[in-house]
Design goal:
The complex is a heterodimer of chains A (about 230) and B (about 350). Chain A is an alpha/beta fold. In chain A, about 35% of the residues lie in helices and about 25% in strands. Chain A has a domain of about 120 residues: P-loop containing nucleotide triphosphate hydrolases (Rossmann fold, 3-Layer(aba) Sandwich). Chain A is globular and about 45 Å long. The mean pLDDT of chain A is about 90. Chain B has a two-stranded antiparallel sheet with strand order 1-2. The N terminus of chain B is likely disordered. The chains are: A alpha/beta (about 230), B mainly alpha (about 350). At the A-B interface, α2 and α3 of A face α1, α8 and α9 of B.
Chain lengths: ~230, ~350
């Protein structure tokens, strides 16, 4: 579904990615891992056309999207939940959900069934939500665009353990419903049992790709610092 | 828009909101106060004060237009006098040809102007819409100070064009000898003219409120706050801003059309950058991004101009002080002081 081939990306004169390869098949949950500063977020920015690749190619649903504008990429069916639970805090929960919604399976009702807390807070400003609720809203907002592939960047970072469990539960429900998911996260013990495949980045390059069960302690120690 | 409407009904069922927010009360009081003041002045035989109320309503209308771009869309246009003046010139030129029974622009197959307000308003808004679309096309590729300069540059171009076109008065401007007609109404009656201006102000306010409550409004707010995040959700920010800019120019153009009829005159000063500045000051004083902010600003400015201007020639010095105070201590403007924090700020 999504295939990233040897992309190289630069921020001005400094190169951040030196050849990242990545694929996500339909219905798969792929974990993108690596320590801080290794290029995970840059890879996502490149996929979404926010920092276009200087070399390499990104393909989505058989189409080359390397040079497309971000809104066109998103319209093809890529949904992004950006790092740091980015909602529009001056809009209500409902406005956040509906402003960018596309017709499809994911409706406000279905998002509210997934995250009942959002239903209770429907008419509140996103500003008044807790961090966890804002994260749920950010996921809900991405779902309302009815993506074929959902990309979550650090979806559980900095959240209370209870809330984190709720988010993981929601991700499990999404996977069961057949959603393709690309996930960046640092909590390995939560991530590994759920992932179909893992990919590790080191200094802007893909260095390991495989099933989470094959991920030995040596690899973890070397690339993930655990 | 439809999906929002349907949930609006369920909202009314599930949790009855207070009928009026504080901001709505303040807005209602300002509107009612203006209408009341105009009526009282009329029946007290003071048409001068009725015209003053019309002036407030019209300048507020111009501000409502700019507020859509500046307040809700974050587009700091320093060229809205272009629309204000074009609206005025359209009416004035139409009336000029109707009066002389000559074809518009001297081109034979064009009609001979009109002295009816409604077609003149529609023409004025169409002209402003087209010009706003063109200016938006070019200037929306930029942001920040460049956007300010480009909008200013376009307004200045139109200003110098008007100054150097002798057929329509050039530097001296163009008078409207007889105020244009509105069906059977006596538009020369100050109160009738106020009523028309006030009704259009209400319409514009209602329209802005509707679109800001709809999906378009939420998307425009997103485009202002974080266009990149909006793009990653599959919505291109620029066309949204473009539409807001066009509507904004059309509303300000309508205000210009009324202003020309109020004064019985249109001159290049309506196109000057001072005029752009005045509309902007009204919006900022009243409260950027507040629905009735421009009305509050217009009331304040026109009253100061009239009463302070009667006391001292240097009233603008005090206006400057007030703007300074607002920027430093009340960034929400008059509406911020009266009605608290803005929801979409």
């Amino acid at each position: 579904m999504l295939s990233v081939n040897a992309i190289q990306t630069c921020y001005g004169p400094s190169q951040a990615l030196f050849g990242v390869d990545l694929t996500v098949e339909a219905g798969e949950l792929v974990a993108l891992m690596g320590r801080n500063g290794m290029g995970k977020t840059t890879t996502i920015r490149t996929i979404f056309g926010l920092t276009p690749a200087s070399a390499g190619e990104v393909q989505f649903a058989g189409q080359n999207i390397t040079r497309l504008a971000p809104h066109r990429i998103a319209r093809l069916g890529l949904g992004l939940v950006p790092e740091g639970r980015r909602c529009f805090t001056n809009l209500t929960v409902r406005e956040n959900l509906l402003a960018t919604a596309n017709p499809g399976d994911w409706t406000q009702n279905r998002v509210e069934a997934l995250f009942p807390r959002l239903a209770e807070r429907r008419h509140q400003l996103a500003l008044t939500l807790s961090g966890g609720e804002q994260q749920m809203l950010a996921i809900g907002r991405a779902l309302m665009t009815n993506p074929r592939l959902l990309v979550l960047d650090e979806a559980t970072e900095g959240l209370a353990p209870v809330i984190r469990q709720e988010i993981w539960k929601a991700i499990a429900i999404l996977k069961e419903a057949g959603m393709s998911i690309l996930l960046v996260d640092k909590t390995l013990n939560e991530l590994l049992p759920r992932a179909d495949r893992c990919l590790i980045l080191e200094k802007g390059q893909s260095v390991w790709n495989g099933h989470p069960g094959e991920l030995g302690d040596a690899v973890k120690d070397r690339y993930l610092g655990v | 828009m439809t999906s929002l409407d349907s949930t609006q009904q369920s909202r009314a069922k599930s949790r009855p909101l207070p009928a009026f927010t504080r901001e709505q009360w303040v807005s209602l009081i300002l509107l009612a106060g203006l209408a009341l003041a105009a009526s009282v002045a009329h029946f007290a035989g003071e048409p001068y004060f009725v015209d003053l109320a019309s002036r407030i309503a019209i300048i507020a209308l111009a501000g409502v237009g700019l507020n859509l771009a500046l307040g809700f869309g974050g587009l700091v246009s320093f060229g809205h006098a272009a629309f204000f003046g074009l609206g005025g010139y359209t009416v004035s030129v139409g009336a000029f040809h109707a009066f002389n029974m000559t074809p518009i622009l001297g081109i034979d197959f064009l009609p001979a102007g009109s002295d009816q307000m409604v077609p003149l308003w529609i023409t004025a808004m169409s002209v402003c819409g087209v010009v706003a679309w063109l200016i938006g096309r070019i200037s929306l590729g930029t942001s920040g100070v460049y956007f300010i300069m480009i909008t200013l540059a376009f307004a200045q171009m139109i200003y110098y064009f008007a100054v150097s076109w002798p057929a329509y008065g050039g530097e001296d401007g163009l008078p409207i000898y007889i105020r244009n007609q509105f069906y059977g109404l006596d538009t020369t009656n100050s109160l009738v003219f106020f009523g028309l201006s006030f009704a259009l102000l209400l319409l514009a306010l209602g329209f802005c409120q509707r679109i800001m409550a709809a999906r378009f409004g939420a998307a425009l707010t997103m485009a202002r706050l974080n266009p990149v995040r909006l793009a990653t959700a599959g919505v291109e920010p620029r066309p949204i801003k473009q539409v807001a800019f066009v509507i904004s120019g059309m509303i300000t153009g309508l205000a210009g059309a009324l202003y020309a009829d109020l004064n019985g005159f249109v001159g290049p000063s309506m196109l000057s950058w001072h005029q752009s500045g005045e509309i902007m000051v009204i919006v900022i004083l009243g409260g950027v991004g507040r629905l009735c902010g421009p009305l509050a600003g217009a009331i304040l400015i026109v009253l100061m101009e009239t009463f302070l201007g009667g006391l001292t020639e240097h009233w603008q010095f005090f206006l400057g002080l007030i703007i300074l105070m607002v920027v430093l201590f009340a960034p929400g403007g008059v509406m911020g002081l009266l009605a608290g924090r803005a929801r979409h700020a």
